[in-house]
């Protein structure tokens, strides 16, 4: 019985391998070339990519190709997902190689061992990375990236200045420096990890800069995501609707303007040269809730337009004044991501999006990667001056409590009068200390 299983597996393996070689799907080099040809990556006169070198590295194989004149790297990059899928097409549901058979211990029952191998293979997915340095480089990894990374405090120790941990790429620990790149767009379809990332961001900043960081949070998704942070000393305001958002933003605009005036008078270039330690993070979650386009209520539309103007101003001029904008949305459209904010937010963290068009709205023309990310919460495209696929660190509730616990403070409600001339504060009771209520009057 054992002998029969082994011999038929070997025979099947040999016949299958020969057949697949004939079909040109036997090895990744041939597959890549066939995928390129079938995906139309061929010049008019029929020229195709030509292999230049193949190198085996630790955990990957790199294929270096010459691109024929008339095709560009962007042509290939746009079809990265086609290559990845092509390299993962299964030969059959019973996909065992001779190499797999060498792992089986035939002294004990091979059936459960074969089942385990098949299950493991089912989970394995080849992932690729593409680069160009005059040659097209396609790196095919032996193992997929980890699909889970738990936050731990050693990550904070690896950060300097205004850096925060983001997670890991395939090769290294990834952090974002908010002094180098002040504003960030965070996008992604629902349940893909935006809120989890924002919690990591706020908790990390409070832990690293308890005396210097301030937050204004426009938590427009119902006020639950940031519930833990509401009473942190560093949180100036939590706005839960467009009316409260406008008041919080007007307060920032006023403060920003007086700071700008002072810097201009004193000939100060920016917050760093002024020696100011404080940074004020303005977090917008969810941007669609304050997008004015499509708003039918005239009054609400008017205040949403004002919110958009202030946010655009923060993105445009406030980086140098110490403000940092984190602008989040699950609806990646031109209406929710205003041009000025996009142009001034040089960092993007984009979780999976539903369409290639949405991915391009966030990441730029031809950048469809976010639509082809695996369905793994926390997996994202992180773009600064380069683009990397990352697995974001996940921070547990207990870790958040531990980091921010010492900074939680029950304070009296903010009661000053900084709302602007058309604004009257109302509803000054209750336990929510720094949320606002506005009454807008006609001018
Ligand atoms: N980095 C991560 N690693 C592992 N799991 C994660 C990660 N981020 C999020 N998740 C899981 O995905 C779930 C949804 O994440 P999250 O609440 O951040 O989604 P979201 O993108 O903010 O969704 P929505 O836009 O609907 O609010 C989390 O409860 C958690 O279980």
UniProtKB/TrEMBL annotation:
<keyword id="KW-0614">Plasmid</keyword>
<keyword id="KW-0132">Cell division</keyword>
<dbReference type="GO" id="GO:0051301">
    <property type="term" value="P:cell division"/>
</dbReference>
<keyword id="KW-0547">Nucleotide-binding</keyword>
<protein>
    <submittedName>
        <fullName>Cell division protein FtsK</fullName>
    </submittedName>
</protein>
<keyword id="KW-0131">Cell cycle</keyword>
<dbReference type="GO" id="GO:0005524">
    <property type="term" value="F:ATP binding"/>
</dbReference>
<dbReference type="InterPro" id="IPR027417">
    <property type="entry name" value="P-loop_NTPase"/>
</dbReference>
<dbReference type="GO" id="GO:0003677">
    <property type="term" value="F:DNA binding"/>
</dbReference>
<keyword id="KW-0067">ATP-binding</keyword>
<dbReference type="Pfam" id="PF01580">
    <property type="entry name" value="FtsK_SpoIIIE"/>
</dbReference>
<dbReference type="InterPro" id="IPR002543">
    <property type="entry name" value="FtsK_dom"/>
</dbReference>
<dbReference type="InterPro" id="IPR050206">
    <property type="entry name" value="FtsK/SpoIIIE/SftA"/>
</dbReference>
<feature type="binding site">
    <location>
        <begin position="188"/>
        <end position="195"/>
    </location>
    <ligand>
        <name>ATP</name>
    </ligand>
</feature>
<feature type="domain" description="FtsK">
    <location>
        <begin position="171"/>
        <end position="360"/>
    </location>
</feature>
């Amino acid at each position: 019985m054992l002998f029969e299983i082994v011999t038929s597996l070997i025979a099947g393996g040999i016949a299958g391998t020969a057949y697949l070689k004939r079909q040109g799907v036997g090895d990744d080099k041939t597959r890549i070339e066939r995928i390129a040809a079938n995906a139309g990556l061929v010049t008019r006169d029929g020229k195709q990519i030509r292999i230049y070198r193949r190198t085996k590295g630790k955990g990957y194989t790199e294929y270096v190709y010459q691109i024929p004149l008339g095709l560009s790297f962007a042509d290939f990059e746009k079809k990265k997902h086609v290559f990845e899928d092509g390299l993962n097409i299964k030969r059959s549901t019973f996909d065992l190689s001779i190499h797999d058979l060498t792992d089986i211990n035939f002294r004990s029952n091979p059936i459960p061992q074969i089942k385990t191998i098949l299950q493991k293979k089912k989970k394995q997915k080849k992932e690729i990375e593409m680069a160009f340095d005059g040659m097209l480089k396609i790196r095919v990894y032996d193992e997929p990236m980890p699909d889970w990374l738990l936050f731990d405090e050693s990550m904070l120790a690896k950060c300097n200045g205004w850096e925060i941990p983001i997670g890991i790429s395939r090769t290294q620990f990834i952090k974002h420096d908010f002094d180098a790149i002040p504003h960030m767009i965070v996008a992604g379809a629902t349940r893909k990890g935006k809120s989890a990332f924002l919690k990591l961001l706020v908790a990390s900043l409070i832990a690293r800069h308890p005396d210097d960081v301030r937050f204004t949070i426009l938590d427009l998704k119902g006020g639950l995501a940031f519930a833990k942070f509401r009473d942190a000393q560093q949180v100036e305001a939590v706005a839960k609707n467009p009316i409260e958002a406008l008041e919080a933003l007007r307060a920032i605009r006023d403060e920003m303007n007086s700071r700008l005036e002072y810097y201009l008078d004193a000939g100060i270039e920016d917050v760093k040269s002024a020696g100011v330690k404080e940074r004020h993070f303005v977090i917008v979650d969810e941007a669609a809730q304050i997008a004015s386009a499509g708003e039918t209520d005239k009054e609400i539309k008017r205040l949403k337009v004002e919110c958009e103007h202030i946010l655009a101003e923060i993105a445009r001029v406030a980086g140098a004044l110490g403000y940092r904008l984190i602008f989040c949305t699950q609806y990646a459209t031109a209406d929710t991501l205003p041009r000025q904010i996009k142009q001034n937010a040089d960092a993007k963290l984009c979780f999976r999006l539903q369409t290639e068009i949405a991915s391009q709205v966030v990441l730029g023309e031809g950048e469809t990667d976010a639509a082809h990310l695996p369905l793994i919460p926390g997996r994202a495209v992180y773009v600064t001056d380069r683009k990397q696929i990352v697995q974001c660190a996940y921070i547990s509730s207990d870790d958040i409590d531990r980091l921010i616990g010492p900074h939680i403070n029950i304070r009296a409600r903010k009661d000053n009068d900084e709302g602007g001339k058309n604004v009257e504060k109302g509803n000054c009771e209750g336990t929510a200390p720094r949320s606002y209520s506005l009454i807008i009057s006609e001018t």
